[in-house]
Amino acid sequence: MMRIGHGFDVHRLVAERKLILGGIEIPYSLGLLGHSDADVLLHAICDAILGALGAGDIGKHFPDSDPAYRGISSLKLLAQVMGLARERGYTIGNLDATVIAQRPKLAPYIRQMVEIIAATCGVNPERVNVKATTTEQLGFEGRGEGISAHAVVLLQVDDGLEEIF
Question: 111 is in which domain, residue-wise?
Answer without folding.
Answer: 2-157
